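In the design runs reported in the main text, the only information available to the sequence generator was the tokenized backbone. The following block is the verbatim input for one such run; it is reproduced so that readers can re-run the procedure and compare outputs position by position.
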């Protein structure tokens, strides 16, 4: 996941699979989007995390939350290891994963977290891959030749998928949409990766 300072709170870090330029979770009363500061580092696949707390947006918690933050969302506080694998050294600051606003109950929260976190350690599988795939996964960069599971490990689940129903003599094609990439797969293998330009800030947006 991408990671960096949590809006105007420098005691906590934000982590998200989306580029920070695509996070539109905070909006002012005037309709301006307040983006988090630029991401400063990446939490690579295979990093151990521990859930510290799940904070719901009730009246009490909202009072203590920074004004310019996603105050109306559920926040999951995480302790994040300094390195990948089964290690005992953790980063000094806690991290917050902001849950989408339409997710409200425990079952939905578990399902959402299950899209990004695994109970079993994936490092043995990752380290069994060729070095070029490992490097792409750790740097969150999809490349041609990846299988679906490699893409998921690198950049997570797609925002949207398109399927092309081909005739018998054509390859089955899928297009996975991300904020910063369009990934085309043919017969389950990445054939092309198209980088997208950074999210355009239109009138009515601002960065804190």
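Verbatim output:
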């Amino acid at each position: 996941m991408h990671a960096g300072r949590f809006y105007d709170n420098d005691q906590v870090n934000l982590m998200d699979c989306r580029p920070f330029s695509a996070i539109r979770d905070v909006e002012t009363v005037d309709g301006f989007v307040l983006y988090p500061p630029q991401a400063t580092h990446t939490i690579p696949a295979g990093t151990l995390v521990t859930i510290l707390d799940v904070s719901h947006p009730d009246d009490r918690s909202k009072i203590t939350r920074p004004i310019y933050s996603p105050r109306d969302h559920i926040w999951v506080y995480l302790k994040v290891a300094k390195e990948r694998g089964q290690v005992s050294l953790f980063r000094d600051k806690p991290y917050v994963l902001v849950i989408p606003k339409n997710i409200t109950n425990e079952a939905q929260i578990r399902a959402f977290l299950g899209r990004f976190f695994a109970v079993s350690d994936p490092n043995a599988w990752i380290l069994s891959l060729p070095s070029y795939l490992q490097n792409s996964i750790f740097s969150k960069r999809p490349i041609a030749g990846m299988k679906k599971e490699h893409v998921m490990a690198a950049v997570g689940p797609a925002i949207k998928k398109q399927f092309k129903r081909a005739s018998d003599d054509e390859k089955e094609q899928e297009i996975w949409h991300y904020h910063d990439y369009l990934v085309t797969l043919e017969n389950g293998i990445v054939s092309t990766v198209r980088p997208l330009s950074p999210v355009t800030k239109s009138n009515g947006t601002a960065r804190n």
